[in-house]
Amino acid sequence: MSRAALDAALEIRGVWKYYGDFPALRDIAFNVMPGSTLALLGRNGAGKTTLLRIVAGLSKPSRGSVTIHGANVREESTRRRIGVLGHGISLYDELSAFENLRLFARLYGVANPARRIDEMLERTDLKRVRDGLVREFSRGMRQRLAVARVFLHDPEVLLLDEPFTALDDRAIAVLQALLDDMHRRGRTIVMSTHQLREALEAATHVAMIQRGQIVYAGERRQEMIDDTGWLYRTYGEN
Amino acid sequence: MERTKGQVGDLPHYLRQVLTIAAKDLRAEIRTREALNASFAFMLVILVLFSFAFDPGNSDVNIQAIAGGLLWLAYSFAAALTLNRSFARELQNDCLDALLASPIPASALFFGKTLANFALLLAMEIVSLGVFAVLYNVRIQAQIWALLLVIVLGTWAMTVMGTMFSALTVNLRLRELMLPVMLYPFLVVPLSAAITLTSDLLNGIPLGGDNILWLKVLAGFDVIFSSLVVILIDTVLVG
């Protein structure tokens, strides 16, 4: 293993994923260094979610490997270091906000769980509904609780699949503040998104995926922010 | 060495994870009563319908001879309803992804859900046993502890296999149909053992002698398939 790979927060090597005969991912390979914020870009169906699911250990690659801080993602100690926010809120409607967070605090072995849960409920402005059932929450409250769940165990690597999609303004502000905090503390963030401007402004690096292949992986450039269409015109299909 | 996949590793920590999942499932089920109401009602309806079909009051019908079969048919049909909900519940809001991404072994997740299903089914079966005794005029008191042992072992067999197939069929559109179709062939052996033992006990024949072999079969099935699941469950859930 190369020095760069050993130092990488996330290393993706030669990942292929087949659904039947269809290759959803084709020879994906790149590293993400600790402290980076990677914007994973691509059109619908390009393979962003498939790749993020493999990185999160929710799906196995047909070929290739993914390591986080040098360890297999399916190892328990590795999963303890990552936080995953997918398309769903991943909360139980029949449980209260506190019970949902307590469940995940126990599963992640969070120290001082009650204090940490209260802290996250405070940061997501949900403390007043701490004991309310999630099924009684508004959509925005559910989204903020989902954000609290992901940040609860203070993950070193955050994997976010379209994190801003369908969030209300308040939830976006909460998520943005937590992401800024994570970035300041040197955490690694990988997020797929369609919101180009917001993602590019936050990103230190960009990977663009097209029909299951990486067509660009590298540092974010100023021209990407100045002209958000530049990336697609330069590396994407017309 | 790091613990991976379904390895048990640190036992107290593992058991805490199992209990966390079981408590979560039980709390959610007790609040919604989705599976509980449906399964219990179905169990009672089957017992009542069978009582019409076999007329326990008719002295020409040897109800003791078929009572074990009737009881376990009701148990196993109703169990499918509860077991179907086990992993299907996790699809709502993509909760299964969050559980699989968390640092618990897949087998701890599985046994947590199995334990919750087992507790629910056992509670329903024990209440139904009383109803069964009244409807069919059978005496259960004389062999009650042996009967409970058989019910515990038989229910664990149904639960461990049913929860496994619930995980396997969770992403299928026809999972409500597929689970019983796949499950019942695997339950032939434990159900045969449980039916034989229950019939013996209801006829006043205690455990021991000839029927001890069936008890060993039932216990052996429980041990073998519970162990097999530890090996298979990570592949079933993550692929």
Task: Please characterize this protein's 3D structure.
- The complex is a heterodimer of chains A (238) and B (239).
- By secondary structure, chain A is an alpha/beta fold.
- Helix content of chain A is 37%, strand content 26%.
- Chain A has a domain of 166 residues: P-loop containing nucleotide triphosphate hydrolases (Rossmann fold), CATH 3.40.50.
- In chain A, strands 6-7-8-3-9-10 form a six-stranded mixed sheet, with helices on both faces. Chain A has a four-stranded antiparallel sheet with strand order 2-1-4-5, covered by helices on one side.
- Chain B has one domain.
- Chain B is built from nine helices and no strands.
- In chain B, helix 1 crosses helix 5, helix 2 packs parallel to helix 5 and helix 6 packs antiparallel against helix 8.
- Chains A and B meet through strand 5, helix 3 and helix 4 of A and helix 1 and helix 4 of B.
Using the alpha-carbon principal axes, give the shape of chain A. Answer: globular
Q: Which spans of chain A have pLDDT < 50 for at least 5 consecutive residues?
A: none
Mean pLDDT across every amino acid position of chain A: 91
Fill in the CATH topology of the domain at 35-47 and 83-235 in chain A.
Rossmann fold
Percentage of residues in strands of chain B: under 5%
Radius of gyration of chain A: 18 Å
SSE-based structural type of chain B: mainly alpha
SSE order of chain A in H/E notation? HEEEHEEHEHHHEHEHEEHH
Taking the sheet with the most strands of chain B, its summary is: none
Most extensive interface, residues per chain? A-B, 35 and 28 residues
What is the percent of helical residues of chain B? over 70%
Distance between the termini of chain B: 23 Å
